[in-house]
């Protein structure tokens, strides 16, 4: 299956210390890739890097806040110097806090996503969600783009959410950021197609991670989540890694500008 091999490739994954980012890193390493992992928590990127090294590939843990352009530039420079190049960029770092736009919603304390109906969004919450979930991807793409253009090779994978395609109450800035990242994926795919750079996106549904475990571990919310998933079952972070492997590998060389929803059918009724 050489079309799925990442042998000789190197990747940088933001939010690679835990959850979906770490799972993608492990799958990439199993496919032969060296992987740089970026997050703000040193202990998590270090421990994830050790797990990748145990597979037999090189890994570098990088501590950076992806909402800070200078820190992004420095992290990408360090990874490029260590590996000689970055072939694959995964913009995965994200946060999921929500709130009501103007005033609290009636009807209890939790929506289907387990969000607080009493919390009102502030400009600070709005800015932080947009900067973390959207602006960071622009910073990373701008920093890694020139070397990919020069080599005429690159794979960029943006991690959206089913929320990029489907509205839920109390998720204004999160949904706006993910929908914005979806459209940025398409724009960049067109701008960078002449350089043989593929830009695609994955929109995961509800997957148990540090970000979402409070929902999955609450039997009532878990049931509500299953009610919006036609397949009525959950998947694992590793399976997001397997889909990301397709988008990172030569198997997807003819695919660009696409968003793939990996959500048990949650967004199937959305065109
Ligand atoms: P986790 O909370 O487990 O992981 C998020 C990662 O992002 C952590 O490594 C975190 O590290 C990093 N991160 C957050 N903010 C920053 C920052 N400012 N700078 C650098 N790193 C940052 O969440 P998931 O693995 O679940 O989420 C990964 C992505 O998948 C997110 O974009 C999320 O929106 C998306 N997603 C997840 C779904 C799910 O059900 N799990 C569903 C749909 C989408 P640290 O805090 O140490 O910096």
Task: List the defining traits of the structure above.
7 strands, binds NADPH dihydro-nicotinamide-adenine-dinucleotide phosphate, globular
Any overview of this molecule?
The protein has helices spanning 19-30, 42-55, 69-83, 123-151, 172-192, 213-216, 219-227, 237-248; strands spanning 10-14, 34-39, 59-63, 88-91, 154-159, 197-204, 259-262. The chain contains 8 helices and 7 strands; from the N terminus they run βαβαβαβαβαβαααβ. The protein is of the alpha/beta class and 271 residues long. It has a 7-stranded parallel β-sheet, with helices on both faces. It is globular and about 55 Å long. The chain binds NADPH dihydro-nicotinamide-adenine-dinucleotide phosphate.
Report low-confidence residues grouped into runs of 5 or more: none
Q: What's the main sheet like?
A: 7 strands, parallel
Helix fraction by DSSP (H/I, runs of at least 4): 40-55%
N- to C-terminal separation?
A: 33 Å
Number of helices: 8
Spatial order of the strands forming the largest sheet: 3-2-1-4-5-6-7
Work out the number of β strands. Answer: 7
Structural class: alpha/beta
Care to give the gist of this entry?
The protein contains eight helices and seven strands; from the N terminus they run βαβαβαβαβαβαααβ. With 271 residues, it is an alpha/beta fold. Strand 2, helix 2 (42-55) and strand 3 form a beta-alpha-beta unit.
